[in-house]
Structure formats: C-alpha cells, structure tokens
C-alpha cells in the first residue's frame, strides 16, 4: 500500500530548540514514536549570499535617497527664528503713490484734524491715534492716506497676524515690529483690527486656556512697547477697530492711545461727496452731481462701503442691459438691490398669495402716505426678492436722530398697515406681518422702558442688555407686568388708528392694490 507524505520546508534559527519543542508537543498529543514527524536538516549555502545581496541593495537605495535633492531635508535653524519676526507691510513715502486725504470723500473735517495732529506730533511718540467706527466707514482708507501724507515710513500689520497658538510668538512679533520701527524712526506703525490682540483680559484667578493666555501675553507686550520703561522716540502708533467695546481699558488710557477718533456713518452731505467720488469712475448719462444729491437722500445709514457697492451694482446693471452709459434708473435699481435683494421673477405665487401681498403692501404705503410724520413713499412692488421678501416699498427717509412720541406712534401705525389691510380686506391674517410686528413691539417697549414716554411707568430707563435672558432684571415683577400691559395698550391704540385711516381711504387701498396686481410695481 502506497502512503502519501506531505513535506514542509522552513527556515529555522535554532535547530536544537525546534526539535525538542516538536517532540514535547507530540508527547502531549499522545502520538506514538513510529508515527512522529521525521525531521531532516538541509544546509543552504546560498542564504548568506542572498542576505549580503539584500544588504547591498538597501544600502544603495539609502545612498540614492540621501543624495537626491527631491528627498533631501534641510533643517535650518533660521526657519524657526523667522517665526518670531513681524510680517509687516512697509510703505516707503518716496516710492509709493497711494491714497491721499483729498481722495477720501466725506471726511473733510476729520482729514483736517488728522493732518494737524500729524504736524503737531512730527515724529514724537507722545501722540497715538485710535480710530473707532462701524464697519465700512473708511478706517483703512484713512490709514492709507496717512501713510502717503505723513512722508515717513509706514509699517502696517493686521491684529490677527500677531496671534499664534505657540506660546510667546505673538509677544515676539510685537517686539520685532517696534524694533524695526525704531530703526526707521521717525515712522508710523499701523495695526488694523486691533481688537484681535486688544481684548479685555480675563479677571479670573485660574489658569486660562492656551489661546487666551497667548492673547494676553501679546497684549501685555503691546502695552509695554507703547508706554514702557524703554523710550520709543519717533514711533507713532495708529490703530483701527469697529469693536471698541471689547478693548482693554489699559490700551485706551492716555499715554497709550491719546486720541480716539470716531468715524461715524456719513451724513447727507458726506454721502453726496462719497457718491460723487465713486461715480467718477463710471460712464454716466449726466455728470455725477446730477445724481449724487438724490442718491444721498435714498441711502440714509449707508456706509462708504455700501455706497461703493451701490455704484458697482448700477454699473453692472447697465452693462447687463447693454447700455452705453449708466442712468438714474440703474442707480435707483442698485439701491433697491442692496436694500431688498435681487428680484426673483421665477418664483411662482398663487393668485391668492399675490392678492394678499398686494393689499399688504398697499396698506403700508397708504398709511405712510396719509400720516404726516412718516417717510415719503417712492415706489411699491410685489416682485419677490431673494432674501424671502415677497413685497418691497421704497421710501425717502430723513437723516433724523430725535423722534417725539407722535412720530414714533405714526411709525408704529405704518408698520401695522399691512396686517390691518389684510384683516379688513379678507377678514383673516397671514404670517407675512411677522417682521412688522417685531418692529412694532420693539418701538412700543423702547418708548416705555428706555425713553420714559409713559405716564404710568414714569421717567425711568432700562437698557436692553439688562433685560436679556439669563441676567437679573433691574426692576420688580410688578413693574414688569405694568410695562407689558402698557406696551399692549400702545400697540392696540396704534392698531385702532391704522384701522381708522384705512377704513376712511378704503377706495384708495382698493385702487392701489389692483394697480399692483396689474403692473407689479407702482411708482409715486
């Protein structure tokens, strides 16, 4: 009988241990000696040669990799030290042709004041400027003008460029920035968005996290450099931010930032100048002064950046319609585009929804037209907008800072005009008046809680921040109930007044709504 045997080949390091362990395993399994596995040893003379060849190949590969430029890793200590260097932008007065004060429209008084202060400081370190303003009002542009007009080297950095998670790098960059400035003295350091490093330091005694600790170290180094023991003759510091409320008090004290320059939103005349400046680069049907006054009246509360956006939108609208020059209609469209959003003519609304929106917008327009203290109406449309607005009304607002009780009350009536028109026409209301009701509620509570315009509550004022959720209210529950009741009464009176106006002029409401349904736009 033929018996088939299986043969296994393997490499063994220690032959004696292998065979002894094999026999022990066979003993435990109870295998008799005649059936045990025979072991035959063969010595392979090529093993040493193969091992030597493998070593040679690996050595050659390592040599090739280390000599290759693609895989060569150069560790330079300078790359580590460069991390602490300040990455500033240097503006040299002799080689740069930048923005001048004459190019910054709408800020003539501020330009003159900055010019006088620059002459007074004249390279000394005892005057430092801090520009505070809402976004888009021209802080950075004014800084560029200072860089050109000062006729000294100008070192510019952003506040966020100082901050790193690696401990001490921010402080090192501050030291390096002032070191470079001192070499070039007299010169100006400009730090844009200084709130990135100038935030209020925490008063907690515990250990702060890494980011907060690094920010505080950077701020401490900034405070030392601006008003420390070492003299910084000839270095003038200029900074800007739109979040002055979060800055540390030590940064704003005299000796650090001596002059705080507030750049507010432009007035009517300043907006006119800004429009004329931006319209110079656009091919217009008529000269810029033809449009600047009206456009300034249509854009109260607009910043310089908003006005630039309006001019850009007007130019794009004219180009899309293949016009040879931009007209007044393009400019007015651009204001609507910026305020209300792009017209969304592809949105499909049912006949019932269109009718509701038409009467809603007609109600706003009619109440605003009939009351004497409200803004003059220019245009009403029921074309949907991209920001979820189903209707839009354009007014001629006034640059007004102070309002009396009657003016606020009539503004509440105008805001309720849409809801009241829906109720009178359809005997039901929709969700379209949500934003209007929010405005009415804020105006009602503002008169009672902040402006002292209610006899039952009295001449007291509470800030909105004090009434926020989670904070302790500075008034009793009884007074809170009285204020809530008075607010409801005020809104109810406004609703009654609005209802009276619309009932009296119901024929005009019907005519205006039907005209809107027919043409989708109504210009007065």
From TrEMBL:
GO terms for cellular component: m-AAA complex. One of its GO terms (molecular function) is ATP binding. InterPro entries: AAA+_ATPase, AAA_lid_3, ATP-dep_Zn_Metalloprotease, ATPase_AAA_core, P-loop_NTPase, Peptidase_M41, Peptidase_M41-like. Its cofactor is Zn(2+). Gene3D superfamilies: 1.10.8.60, 3.40.1690.20, P-loop containing nucleotide triphosphate hydrolases, Peptidase M41. Residues 128-267 form the AAA+ ATPase domain. It is found in: Membrane; Mitochondrion. Keywords: ATP-binding, Hydrolase, Membrane, Metal-binding, Metalloprotease, Nucleotide-binding, Protease, Transmembrane, Transmembrane helix, Zinc. One of its GO terms (biological process) is mitochondrial protein processing. In the C-terminal section; belongs to the peptidase M41 family. In the N-terminal section; belongs to the AAA ATPase family. This is Paraplegin. It comes from Orchesella cincta. The lineage of its organism: Eukaryota, Metazoa, Ecdysozoa, Arthropoda, Hexapoda.
